[in-house]
């Protein structure tokens, strides 16, 4: 279980790290991605299991983070996507 938690924290920090590399606040990322600031905060703080992103929202989030292909997205970094 501890290994799973470490993996989740690494994935969460990957998104936060990328956002910070781009010089974006949570609010700016939320606007670019078309989702709420609270959703960004929840993902970054490990509460993303409660979040269900629509596929188009996930796509916009990846685009806002300038992850152009699936290979750019960190391994195992996938919040739940409805679809």
What does this structure look like?
This protein has 83 residues and is an all-alpha fold. The chain is built from four helices and no strands. The protein has one domain (2-72): Orthogonal Bundle (434 Repressor (Amino-terminal Domain)). It has helices spanning 2-21, 26-33, 37-44, 55-64. The longest helix has 20 residues, at 2-21. The mean pLDDT is 79.
Overall strand count: 0
Provide the succession of SSEs: HHHH
The average pLDDT value, as a whole number, equals 79
Give the overall form. globular
Q: Evaluate the radius of gyration.
A: 12 Å
* Binned strand content: under 5%
Point out poorly predicted stretches.
none
Largest sheet: none
SSE class: mainly alpha
Domain tally: 1
With helices defined by DSSP (H or I, 4 residues minimum), what is the helix count? 4
CATH architecture assignment name: Orthogonal Bundle
Calculate the terminal CA-CA distance, rounded to whole Å.
Answer: 28 Å
CATH homologous superfamily (4th level) name: lambda repressor-like DNA-binding domains
CATH topology type: 434 Repressor (Amino-terminal Domain)
Q: Give the proportion of residues in helices.
A: 55-70%
CATH class category name: Mainly Alpha
């Amino acid at each position: 279980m501890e290994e799973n938690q470490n993996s989740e924290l690494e994935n969460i920090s990957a998104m936060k790290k990328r956002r910070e590399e781009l010089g974006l606040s949570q609010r700016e990322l939320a606007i670019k991605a078309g989702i709420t600031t609270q959703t960004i905060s929840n993902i970054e703080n490990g509460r993303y299991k409660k979040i269900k992103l629509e596929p188009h929202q996930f796509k916009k989030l990846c685009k806002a983070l300038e992850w152009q292909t699936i290979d750019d997205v960190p391994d195992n970094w996938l919040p739940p996507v409805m679809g």
